Amino acid sequence: MKISYNWLQQFLQINWEPTKIGELLTDLGLEVEGIETKESIKGSLKGIVVGKVLTCIQHPNADRLKVTTVDLGDGIPVQIVCGAPNVSAGQKVPVATIGTTLYDDKGEGFVIKKGKIRGEESHGMICAEDELGLGKSHDGILILNEDLVEGTPAAKVFNIETDYVFEIGLTPNRSDAMSHFGVARDLRAGLIQKGLQLELISPSVSNFHVDERTLRFDVEVENKELVPRYCGIVISDLTVKDSPEWIQNRLKAIGITPKNNIVDITNYVLHELGQPLHAFDAQKVKGNKIIVKTLEEGTKFTTLDGVERTLSADDIMICDEDATPLCLGGVFGGLTSGVSETTTSIFLESAYFNPVSIRKSAKRHALNTDASFRFERGIDINSTKYALKRAALLIEEYAGGKLSSDISDFYPVKIEDFQVFFNYENAYRLIGQEIPKDTIKNILASLEIKINSETESGLGLTIPSYRTDVQREADIIEEILRVYGYNNIEFSHKLNTSISFDSNTDTKIENVIANQLSSLGFNETMANSLTKASYTDLSENINSEANVAMLNPLSNDLGVMRQSLLFSGLESVSYNINRKNNSLKFYEFGKTYHNYNNKYQEDKHLTIFVTGNRTKDSWNTTAKISDFFYLKGIITSILSRLGIENVKTVPTKDDVFSEGISLSLGKIKLVDFGIVKRTILKEFGIKQEVLFADFNWDNILKLSSKKNSKVSELSKFQSVKRDLALLIDTKVEFKEVYNLAFQSEKNLLKEVDLFDVYEGDKLPEGKKSYAVSFVLQDETKTLEDKQIDKIMQKLQQTFEKNLEAVLR
Fold first, then answer.
1. Most exposed residue of 15, 142, 435, 750, measured as fewest CB within 10 angstroms of its CB?
2. 618: which DSSP letter?
3. Rounded to whole angstroms, how far apart are CA atoms 789 and 792?
4. Whole-angstrom Cα Rg for the chain
5. 3-class DSSP state of 694
6. What is the mean predicted confidence (pLDDT) over 75-90?
7. Among 155-164, 299-308, 635-644, 671-680, which stretch is predicted with the lowest mean pLDDT?
8. 277 closest CA partner among 117, 196, 387, 173
9. CA-CA distance, 619 to 321, in Å (whole number)?
10. Using CA atoms, how far apart are residues 279 and 285, in angstroms rounded to an integer?
11. What is the pLDDT of residues 709-768, one digit of tens each?
12. Partners of residue 167 on adjacent β-strands
């Protein structure tokens, strides 16, 4: 929000430097993010002086140029070549001296230098209106009043104004400070604490009176909940033209382009008092009647920007007698009902709209206007009529209008000021320091918070209507503290703390797995839970009807809550690959959100993404591409770390994989993993293979919580490893070899592992070679060779008998 220093001085006669005011505003909670210097004319006409043309003769080498001598007030006339047709001797003219910077209509500057034009020296430039930024005319040089003294700076002649603009990062709760008057009111409270008592000057409306009641407008409000107050007045016989220079300067300083006197005055009062106003061309309002209502869902309405919008049944609409919409109430005007150059009478509106309704309408139609910005945060309902009078008087003065009706004021239920009891001890406890009671009372008085009653323990207070954010005792304490000054609170240099122990088992399990993955080179990601609704089209397993949709999404890309962590993860993968980071290992703990038959459900997941090389490129290592078996190893290690064993492998039913499997324990699904389909990767611009694993973390936690840790003593006796190379049928699976081995030797056999598989033309058709390792160990003694050979012979015979295996 932009606040003008010169504008503030209309309410507070303060001579502080802008930087000092900025520091005080920041201390008061109105954080000043920057201070910018603004000039009503760029460059402030520095270097431009009044000159008198002493002589003017024809240029000897150019028909359209004149050679002049000009007195600049220093007694030394200078020669200037001028091409203006209206230049002549005896004139007082604006002259840009050597070294002056002039600016074009784009704000780009050029420096006036000494030079020769067609052989004649020129020591400056006699300027036209547009060259000075004073207008648009370029028909000739600007002729000044002949009474002006030579050498007078042009900035004094044209009353150039230099302003300083504060950029305030206004928090949403401070709706009372959404205007220059509101900021001045807060600034005054801060100045009082600095010992500076200044009067807060409010614009006077004492001269308001109706000239003649010749043009009556009826106002009807259908829903007092949506529109608690609605005021309006008719002003006739006005002339639409440029607004006065001082209003234009105020608006330009805060970045608003002046349009005409009517629109400029409504904008001026908006930023002066914080009350949005809207002017309707009275001749375009049928039946001289304003109806404030809602229209049917799907009604079309074209707003001021020329966009046809589809209305909601909840939008507040300003309509005429025929229920024709004229304005999207509190948000944006209509294309046909606004003020134009031919307007001679207006209906001026000043209202209080329900903040929630305005916020929803603004979000629904993707509109963010100065009016909606204030209405949706809550304006002062008691300033509605006052602001209308202020604007009406300005229009009467600067547009020649006549007040042609009484003010229509729909205000059926008066909103009473809020009452709060303030306890001194609670304030001391929250602030951490005892502030004198008299200081507290002075601060409350400076904030216009009235003291209704007083006891030894506290105060009964009435909150002014413009402080919509002050509703609790804690809010009062915050107000006292910010005005008193956070910097004035003493604090201890000793920091006391206590160690807390996390008893949440689920969190501990997450941390264990997170540490494990991080140690394996994975990076943890946290994606937005909001995502695109269109992502559900990428998988038939995801039902778009189960989307949890946002009522007021920030954008179409954030319209629903995610049903899968895959797509937000692929966004991160794509982002990194596009920045030449092609080898990635990510994991994320997150939730998915579903709406099943109007019942909302949240599911916890752990997802893993792997793509590119397993390790970073190095001169002494060979790059290995991450593959399906690498991901499977990671998943197996996670389950093993959690004590989950004897899982069952089945093909996955998830259609996001081109190749994938699912691991489960009984009927409980644990994880789906595999290679993501290329059609899905193409949607994200990913051309390389991506491996993805999706753990059902709720199921993992349930199983992990049932597992008891077992601690066993390490054996004192060495294990023995033996290998067998078996020629078996291709139909035989390793699982059969594994089970037969443990059936044959239940006591001493500890591990069975498949470390090589070979199928090729050197083997008989229908055969394959399995290289299997066996680990044997006796917990009570060292194994002897005879015992080992006997076990291995027994295993061999078992495989020959049951699998028709042949030892290679």
1. 15
2. B
3. 5
4. 41
5. strand
6. 93
7. 155-164
8. 387
9. 83
10. 11
11. 566 677 888 899 999 999 999 888 777 888 899 899 888 998 888 777 787 777 888 888
12. 2, 34
